[in-house]
Amino acid sequence: MERFGSQKRPPMSYSHAQLTITKLRVKNQTPILPIGWKRALGRRSEVDDLLARAEMLPQLLAATPYLQHRGRLANGAFLMEIGDVPFHAELRDGALVHFSRGPALMRPWRFALRGDVEAWERFWRPCPPPDFHDILALTKFKRFKLEGDIYPFLSNLLFFKDLFALPRTVEGAP
Do residues 82 and 160 make contact, with C-beta atoms less than 8 angstroms apart? Predict the structure, then answer.
């Protein structure tokens, strides 16, 4: 037996988003559009760009052999949170074997690195401003929070600093 509303709504199409905006403009109302309307119109928000850069982390690490060698002793799971979007990662011998976006019920992790969207955006600039150049500087100035068992983080500190700074190398960065 199916429940009412158990079906997922299809993503908004370009024509549907344009039609919704046009109807509301004719009625002189400010458009209140559902989530995903910018993506339907082919525009991306800054948060979407940051999340896309974070999702590239496994490919960036795989393309950096010296960093894999530096993290060869790093094992375990960690949580990286951009705003309120969590990313769960599992490291084995310096390689990201699992990297997923979104909340997961009862997913274990050893440490968590949490920060607001603006702090991540500034940290991932090609030339970050002062106080946004390093993870530990961001934790000192309370822009990032480092939680949990930080022993694996500190014992592989250079690896994790370079790992979290990898999205700076992505072309098209602000």
Answer: no
Q: Which residues of 44-72 are buried (b: 16+ CB within 10 A; e: fewer)?
A: eeeeebbbebbebbeebbeebeebbebbe
With CA atoms as reference, report the closest residue to 163 among 113, 128, 116, 122: 113
pTM over 0.85: no
Question: Is residue 169 pLDDT above 80, yes or no?
Answer: yes
Q: What domains are defined for the chain?
A: 9-43 (no CATH), 48-169 (3.30.1050.10)
Residue 172, number of CB atoms within 10 A of its CB: 7
Q: CB neighbours (10 Å) of residue 120?
A: 25
Q: What is the mean pLDDT of residues 44-59?
A: 88
Q: Give CA separation, 146 vs 5, 6, 98, 101, 137, in Å.
A: 39, 38, 21, 19, 12
Contact at 8 Å (CB) between 37 and 13? no
